[in-house]
């Protein structure tokens, strides 16, 4: 059940950007426990806050796709590893859009209560993204 | 069983640097399936190669510790999330030793066959490490 909820959440919310679907998947309070890639790290978000987070995050990469690699389940959490890809169409960390395809890998633990997601712990290879952006910008320059 | 093997492997080999213990934990061939932080990414190592990898990796950070956060198990693999810390005593990616404590987070899937580890898929927040090193070097400069 948790794995099915999570798969649908990733697809609808993060891949398709359907922010109206968010309340179906997350609890009233969602905590970003650990996520060095995320400006909301450490915060507790309600549904409206989470909607803003998704909309803002997807702005520079509107066609982003998280492709789940492995999925693990424990009593109160699900852990996934993933590959991410997107076309870079807006500013990321001060770097102007390159129009190029970028990729990243990562892993996320999603915490559950009553089949709703209450937060996550995440790590991603952000350095790989910066190296790709710099390489694309150098080519242009 | 797999979780106990992995815990001991992380402690003895990566935390304590006991390279003579490696053959107890890994299969004759160990494949680094995905690991953007690792110079051996994509390679298949035998025990001697793995010993060189551990010795080389630990050189600049001889007191490194992987502190396992969560552990998940499936039929043929175990996934862990971890926090890493170390004192930076040797060159890392061209940056001179700072003597400072550095930290990193990551997640690793370890693949098993007959209770021996046959390889891994890993992601780590390398950018966080570079940001810490740069901040330490700027303080000194």
TrEMBL record, chains A, B:
One of its GO terms (biological process) is polyketide metabolic process. It holds the Pfam family SnoaL. Signal peptide: none annotated. This is SnoaL-like domain-containing protein. It comes from Pseudoalteromonas luteoviolacea H33. The lineage of its organism: Bacteria, Pseudomonadati, Pseudomonadota, Gammaproteobacteria, Alteromonadales.
């Amino acid at each position: 059940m948790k794995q099915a909820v999570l798969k649908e959440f990733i697809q609808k919310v993060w891949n398709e950007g359907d922010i109206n679907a968010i309340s179906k998947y997350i609890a009233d309070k969602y905590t970003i426990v650990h996520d060095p890639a995320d400006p909301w790290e450490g915060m507790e978000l309600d549904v409206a806050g989470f909607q803003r987070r998704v909309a803002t995050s997807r702005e520079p990469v509107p066609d982003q796709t998280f492709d789940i690699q492995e999925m693990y389940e424990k009593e109160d959490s699900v852990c996934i590893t993933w590959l991410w890809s997107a076309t870079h169409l807006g500013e990321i960390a001060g770097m102007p859009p390159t129009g190029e395809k970028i990729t990243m890998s990562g892993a996320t633990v999603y915490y559950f209560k009553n089949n709703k997601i209450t937060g996550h712990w995440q790590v991603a290879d952000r350095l790989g993204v910066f190296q790709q952006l710099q390489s694309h910008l150098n080519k242009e320059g």
